[in-house]
Amino acid sequence: MTSLHALHHTGSPLLLPNAWDHASAAALAAQGFPAIGTSSLAVAAGAGLPDGMAVTQDETLRLTRQLGNRGFLLSVDAENGFSDDPAQVAAFAARLAAAGAAGINLEDGRGDGTLTPATVHAAKIAAVKDAVPDLFVNARTDTHWLRIQQDETEARLDAYSRAGADGVFVPGLSDPTRITALVRFLDVPLNILYSPTGPGVVELGALGVRRVSLGSLLYRVALGAALDTAIGIRSGRPVTGNVPAYSDVQGLSGE
């Protein structure tokens, strides 16, 4: 199997769809996606818990055990590592790797709308790479979501790459000029979160982006489709769209 590291250097961006359970991951894998991520929002919502509050550690590990070593490369969204203690984050990352994860996503955003100090987040990254050198660490900064200036983004990404991050992730960034500037600044692959109103995968690749994540988009689309279908049936409208047969979904249990 091609490594997750190698998939960031094929000449085209790695399109990473994000699953939320075994069926969604198996269905995506069946469509030929070599790497699949998890969505922290979907994991949290499925458990009735808030996202980004470091309360879904057990659920994240449980899903990793379900999806690891299934014939595709798994990148796990681990929020902020569920701790500000680098040793604890590294220990959890090692458990994820043992369960079959090929990569981990670590964010510096906090549930209260602030950012973890860059030195603390860099220490987490360094500890993970020391404990699990082969695990692909995608270091995320939430500066653009929090409307923090570009120079802070660059400073944080530089600190994270120096700490050993294999790639960096800037969700909320969609401006081609700023993306190009970051690509030129960085020595590691840049990950961008796909936005239906932003550049497409081909355009992002032309800008130098190496990885395009779908985040919680698929989960939210699926939830919206379920609501639309239920409301439509209640209103007497026919069911439309792509509806997998019972046997198709049943078949995913063997994937």
Automatic annotation (TrEMBL):
A single Gene Ontology molecular function, please?
lyase activity
Q: Which residues form a coiled coil?
A: none
Q: Which InterPro entries match?
A: ICL/PEPM (IPR039556), Pyrv/PenolPyrv_kinase-like_dom (IPR015813), Pyrv_kinase-like_dom_sf (IPR040442)
Q: Which Pfam families match?
A: PEP_mutase
Keyword terms, alphabetized: Lyase, Pyruvate
Mind telling me what this protein is named? Isocitrate lyase/phosphoenolpyruvate mutase family protein
Q: Which organism is it from?
A: Streptomyces sp. gb1(2016)
